[in-house]
Amino acid sequence: MNSSANQGERLLPKHLAIIMDGNGRWAKKRFMPRSMGHKAGAAKFKAIARYCSKIGIPYLTVYAFSTENWKRPTEEVGALMGLFKQYLKDALEDLLNDDIKIRFLGDTSVFSSDLQELIAETIQIGEKRTGMVLNLAMNYGSRAEITRAAKSLAEQVQHGILQPQDITEKLLSEHMYTYGQPDPDLIIRPSGECRLSNFLLWQSAYAEYIFIDVLWPDFTTKHLEDCLHEFTMRNRRFGGV
Ligand code: IPE
Ligand code: IPE
Ligand code: MG
After folding, report:
1. Who contacts 26 (Cβ-Cβ below 8 Å, separation ≥6)?
2. Total Cβ atoms within 10 A of residue 9
3. Cα-flanking dihedrals φ and ψ of residue 202, to 5°?
4. Does pTM top 0.90 for this prediction?
């Protein structure tokens, strides 16, 4: 079984996921505040998302803010929230021209009311779109996601809607934020860190990983193309021979 999208001659991942890491170090190298790194990272994200849509990647997920990122200084969190709002405002206008369908992974109920309104509007407009699905993982953590799924299933059992023996891998998958989407085929993490940091643990059981030693604001479409090429060279066996 190969779950990749075949675009003509080209084998592309059907679902690409990116851990957009290294903004802070990028800024530090330039003696700038970390918030400037996030600004550069946001601009890079916009460009890369457009490119993915253009080359025909059906699903793109980006890790924008983890459940652990609240530990950061208030000022930095505030700067990130400001960038999210700006991105969504711009995207709402762009979406009229763009065909990208934005969705959100994570608990968005804790965000400020104005950000939540933007999120709701973005989802609504996205419903009519048919192009690339762009998942923004915001206040996302895999452990929180799996815990939420377990709770929901436990409640259904408690109310007699479900029997424990009915709980299958498929049913658990259907309780993840990525419900209805293919699992990621390829996960790229720039910045040189070689860890997942609580990202898509359930969904990445058979994902290919590429850890690349480039800070996210320096990541280019050329780096992406190199990663996509490397992906085509991987021999995916899914436990078979
Ligand atoms: C990723 O860049 C952005 C977020 C986590 C929100 P970092 O801010 O983690 O950058 P580094 O890892 O400190 O360089
Ligand atoms: C992961 O990066 C989260 C995002 C990129 C949004 P972190 O920078 O938060 O991860 P750690 O702390 O290095 O593991
Ligand atoms: Mg980091």
Report:
1. 37, 40, 41, 215, 216, 217, 218
2. 5
3. -70, -45
4. yes
Taking the CA of residue 197 as reference, the ligand 2 atom at the shortest distance is 14
β-pairing verdict for 186-190 and 101-105: unpaired
Q: pLDDT tens digit string along 199-232?
A: 999 999 999 999 999 999 999 999 999 999 999 9
CA distance 13 to 15: 5
- Does position 42 have pLDDT exceeding 70, yes or no? yes
Q: Is the CB of 42 under 6 A from ligand 2?
A: no
Contact 14, 182 (CB under 8 A): yes
Tell me: the pLDDT tens digits for 86-107? 999 999 887 667 899 999 999 9
Q: Is 221 touching ligand 2 by the criterion CB < 6 Å?
A: no
pLDDT in the model for residue 39: 98
Residues with CB under 6 A from ligand 1: 20-25, 65, 69, 80, 191
